[in-house]
Amino acid sequence: MKVGIYGSSFNPITNGHLWTANTVADRQKLAKVIFLPSSSKRMDKSITTQDFHRLEMLKLAIAGNEKFEYSDYEMKANVGTYYTYYTMEYFKKLYPSAEVFFIMGADLLKEIPDWKYSEELIKNNRFIVMERNDINMYRVIAGSVLLRRYEQQFILMGKGIVNEISSSYIREEFEFGGDPRYLLPEAVYQYIRENQVYTI
User: Fold this and answer.
1) What is the pLDDT of residues 80-111, one digit of tens each?
2) N or C terminus: which one in the chain shows less Cβ crowding within 10 Å?
């Protein structure tokens, strides 16, 4: 069995996130994709939206897809333990008979050599990397001695179509009275409006 761990702030989750997860699951034959919203307590992120709202929106977005699950592991983890290295160790223990992959965009491929425990993380895990914008994934790997050393750990995927939907753009539209309705699931759109999640 193959399991994909898809980490992001999901603030909010968009149709782009769902398309990415579905495409990866289909092409890489994953049995399930676990959506992993990051904790607002992370020092490397600036998340002002309450964890509760982001998790509720995520639940609404993935409802009805039997391959999609969610985990609040990082939201509940102690400060200092929600590095991706610890996250992957947790899920490998949770699914000991599965092949577990970390799903990420090419923008994170550029950053991963600077992550905490980066070499241990890369050496001991497999990654599915989705093309983003104009980032040349092969050039990124070639330009990093750490990535070159463990190049076999990365599965690089071209999207085939451009599907960039920015969560920050959606937040800005809501905050300033715009209507980004068709960039995110209808249930999430309605939840945001009813709960005034991004109203200034």
Assistant:
1) 667 899 999 999 999 999 999 999 999 999 99
2) C
Distance CA 54, CA 119 (A): 31
196 CB neighbour count, 10 Å cutoff: 9
86: Cα within 13 Å, side-chain hemisphere = 11
Any idea which residue has 């919203």 for tokens? 37
Q: Does residue 163 have a pLDDT over 70? A: no
The Cβ-side half-sphere exposure at 25, using a 13 Å CA radius, reads 20
At 85, is the secondary structure helix, strand, or coil?
helix
Closest residue by Cα to residue 141 from 130, 152, 125: 152
∠ CA 67-167-44 to the nearest 5 degrees? Answer: 95
Domain range annotation of the chain: 2-195
* CA–CA dist 189, 200 (Å, integer): 16
Query: How many residues are present in the chain?
Result: 200
Query: What is the CATH architecture assignment of 2-195?
Result: 3-Layer(aba) Sandwich (3.40)
- Average pLDDT score over the chain: 93
Rounded to two decimals, the pTM is 0.94
